[in-house]
Structure formats: C-alpha cells, structure tokens
Amino acid sequence: MRRRSLIAAAGAASLARITPARADEPVDVALVLAVDVSRSIDEDEARLQREGYRSAVSDPKVVEAIRGGMLGSIALCYIEWAGIEYQRTVIPWTRIAAQPDADGWAATLERAPRASLSWTSVSGAIEASRRALGECPHEATRKVIDVSGDGVNNSGPPAELARDRAVADGITINGLPILNDRPTFGRAPPVPLDIYYRDSVIGGQGAFMIAAEDFESFGNAVRRKLIREIAGVNGPTTTYA
Q: In which domain of life is the source organism classified (predicted)?
C-alpha cells in the first residue's frame, strides 16, 4: 500500500512538471492595446503602425522590463477599433514572460488580417477594452488600457464618459496620439490631438501619454510607452517621440 502511494505521488509530481502553466496565472499588468484602424489611416500608415507594435513587444529591452517585474510576466490583448460599431479582438489575452513569448506574439500580429472602417470612436475603444479587462483570465496587479489613434472621437458617446467609467473600475488609460499632419476626412480636428488626448482620453493613477510626431516615429513611441507601462514608473504626463 505504501509503495503504491509513493508511486502515485511520484507520478503526480511528474505530471505537475509537464502540465502547461495555468491560464489564470497572475501577472504584473494586464494591458489592452487599443489600436485605431479608421479610414484616416492609409495602408502604409497601417503597416508602420502594426510594425511598431510588433517590434516594440518583441524588443529585448521590453522583454527585459517584463522579466524585471515582481511576477516577471504581463498579459496582452490587442484590439483594433474604428467607429462605435466596430471593435475587434485581433489577439486575445496572451501571457508574455520571455523572449519566445514576445516573438510568437509579434509573428501572430504579422499574420493577422486587417480591416479599415469609417469614423473614430475613442469611447467605443475604451468600452471594448474595459470589457476585455473584465474577462482577462489572469489576475493582474495593475490594469491598463493603451489607446492609440490619429483623430478625436467623432462616433458614439463622448470619450470622457467611457474614460470615467474605466477609471472608476480602477483602470489606468494611457494615450498614444499620432500627430498626423493630414486632416481627418478633410476636416481639421477641433483641438490639437495631443491636447485632446490629455484632457479627454487619459485618466487613472499614473496616467500619461507619449505623442508620436508622425507614423515613422510611432515604433519608438510604442517602445518607450510599453517600458514605462510595464515598469509602472512615474514620469511626465506628456512627452513626445
């Protein structure tokens, strides 16, 4: 009887070694990347935008920041959005804890098809991101929404309403406005985009934004932003890349 018990225990220990990590393993931060795919962003800009996220997430410095956290891992969810009727989860929640995880995530984004729709609903993006955080399978020390886009809210409820609901849930919203010099749908924005993101989009504890001067500088802005979000360090509310 004792021998059978020891064999069973040994078998259980062996099984534990080969069982994949639990889906609900805790992480330092649950981060939604909410990315604008409205028609004000052309194909070349969309390519630069996705390449910016791919290269940033797989950058060894970003992975080093992830591994340097208390738990050494983060959870990422990648959502593309346009008007109030369109928010799509392109890559669902994925735990990133090492370079192969980050490289695999970047490869998945490279293969994903892209859609482009009219209008810009920042409020819809925040609401979709808030729902995604509510469904995250990982317990997270911090919850963050990272909104990037090249226009102000022109579809759906005001962005401020969605922002305030997310902040009330303990979520931090950071921004990455792209200061594109082309007017959206032929119209100049009512306020400068960096000012709009500062006043109407970002919110919550430690909220900040990094403005990309154009799509070419977008990748650098994403990389800097991810490192700061992952590390959870304080800094200026607004910086420019």
A: Bacteria
Cβ atoms of 138 and 71 within 8 Å: the answer is no
In a domain, 8, yes or no: no
Domain count of the chain? 1
CB-based contacts of 14: which residues, under 8 Å, 6+ apart?
A: none
Are the C-beta atoms of 152 and 191 separated by less than 8 Å? yes
Q: Look up the CATH number of the domain holding residue 171.
A: 3.40.50.410
- Please give the backbone phi and psi of residue 130, each rounded to the nearest 5 degrees, phi first: -65, -40
Look at residue 19 and tell me if it is in a domain.
no
Q: What is the domain extent for residue 47?
A: 25-240
Cα-only R_g, the chain: 20
- How, if at all, do strands 140-149 and 172-177 pair? parallel
* Tens-digit pLDDT string for the chain (241 aa): 333 343 333 333 322 332 334 457 999 999 999 999 998 888 888 888 999 999 999 999 999 999 999 999 999 999 999 999 999 999 999 999 999 999 999 999 999 998 888 899 999 999 999 999 999 999 999 999 999 999 999 999 999 999 999 999 999 999 999 987 555 554 556 789 999 999 999 999 999 999 998 888 889 999 999 999 998 888 888 888 7
**Is 14 domain-assigned?**
no
147 within some domain? yes
